Amino acid sequence: MNINIQACGIIIITVIIYFNCSQTRLKLKTNNAYIAILINTTVCLMLDILSIVCIKNSSLIDGFLVSIICKLYLISLMSEAYWGILYTYADITRKYNKIDTITNISIITLIISSIATMILPIDWVYINNGSVVYTEGLACNITYAYCLSTIILNIVTCIKNRKIMTNKRFYSIIMWMMLWIIAALIQLFNSSILIVSFASVVGVMIIYFQLENPEKYRESNFKCFNQQAFIAYINQMYKDNIKFSLLVAYDLNLYARADMGQEDIRNIRKKYLKFLSTFTRLTFLYEHDKVILVFDNDQSCEMALDAIILASKKEFKGDGEFLKPFLYTIYDSTLLKSSDTMLNTINYTSMNLVQYEDRHDYINITENTLKMIEDENKIIGMIHRAIKDDRVEVFYQPIYSTKHHKFISAEALVRIRETNGNLIYPNVFIPIAEKSNLIIKLGHLIFVKVCKFISENNIKNMGLQYIEINLSVAQCSYHSLSHDFIKVMNRYNIDSKCINLEITESASYSSKVTLLNNMNKLIQKGVTFSLDDFGTGNSNFNYVMDMPVKIVKFDKEMVEEYFSNDKSNFIMSNIIKMVKGLNLEIVAEGVETEQQLNSLIDIGIDFIQGYYFSRPVNRQKFIEFILLNNKR
Ligand code: C2E
Ligand code: CA
Ligand code: CA
What we know:
alpha/beta; five-stranded mixed β-sheet; about 55% helix; binds ligand C2E; binds calcium ion
């Protein structure tokens, strides 16, 4: 009996349908096309079996009925080929208009071919007592022609769109189509083997395991969709120009009681995720720490936001156990040009904006936010290019010693040289570099440049004792900072005493342990530290006492204040007394006039830095300045 192979096909297809339907699907276009393929394949197999049975019993059955059933089988084969091409198009909808015409042509030719198949004659052959059964005639030829041309069209489409298809998809579809062709050829030359419909089942199975297994889009632990699903989903939405809204709950920090174990924490996370997923079917876990909810309009997004904020305050805040993720929304996906921009924005917002906002609140990403992100990205790109093209320059501003009456040091201040020769000042790019890890790279480069400068110029002979280099907060809390810097100093063979690093009070906000560890290692080598920006904002005198610094730098603001009224005058005198009491030296920054200089010398300031002597200048001008002014 040659329906065994078809029976096998039915079993396989039933199993696939079961697996496919027992799981939550993302319902992408390809998923939907695949469901149609599954149904079509099942119908095709059944008609295949039915036609064989009919042919075998054709002596008992009306010939017209047999021919109708055989023809329906042929039509189901053609429609299978049609769905195959639709499946390919479901993925590459980027060239939407063109595809519309091709699919229209395919459906029209399918209809015409089906009608022709119904009208044209068909013969069935039944020999060797039923061991060989097949059909022939014009109707069959039409089927062959339609299927073959559609399969070839499918293969050509895949090859043409190779670049926008994933490897997996490309090869799976090609394999499926090749299976068809091979099966048809076998059947053409050996009519006793009816394997075309079975070959199609095998193809469908390949597609299932390679592309359509709903499991691959699921987050098994949390019963929601995964990151891959999110990317596939938004790709589809952007390709189809469909607007959507989304809400991101980032950083599921659990402010748990000390007695809570890992298991409890996991359970609460699970509970929270379950709660979030009640708002939309489209709940995704993205990069382990972000839950993304997708809505088809902004009203439902807004409603979900309100409900989540409320619930975070109530249900998830009892008994000392609560989750407080940071929430942000993008009400209108069309604000972002592509799915890539959307992914970047999500990463950027989670990394940067979130830290700067009140954690109780949420951010709605608007056009302004995006403009800001875009500007910052431009600056980040600018810094990267400047590093690559070696357009990062270090300027030096001399520092005058009131005791030695000459310049004994300088502050290294970074600038970026634009390609047109203009300078970009650090206030433009340092704060942005600080937000990303870029400051580590940039800071390292600046350090290298200063070490190189010291090693190439005999700064001691010029009367200079050390160069001051600014450190950002992120650098201070970077665990291998001291290790890296020591390596650089060794490489350039410079005396570590030539380096003074400026830190600010905010350096201790992140990780005081790492900061002190770095400082102590460098101090052991001979590097000294200054406390920069003293007198700005909320300077804390305790901090000065705490830190192993040698110099305190009075900020320009504080120096200006000193000259503005008697009260600040009195305060400053006392601060100077206290700092001196700790055996620390003082630099006054931002000194612009001779009068300021003289008063500062009078009250016992050790070092003066400011435009009065020199603006920060490039290394050449700096050397000239020092050689001229440090001559005795
Ligand atoms: P800062 O550390 O407080 O540096 C002193 C700033 O005051 C410099 O600005 C300097 O040009 C300016 N200045 C010096 N004397 C006078 C004066 O008499 N009058 C006035 N009005 N200004 C004066 P600059 O070079 O634009 O640097 C700005 C800030 O950028 C620095 O403030 C520092 O926080 C940061 N920065 C500069 N270079 C670096 C660097 O290499 N690494 C890091 N992490 N930050 C840097
Ligand atoms: Ca400084
Ligand atoms: Ca300063």
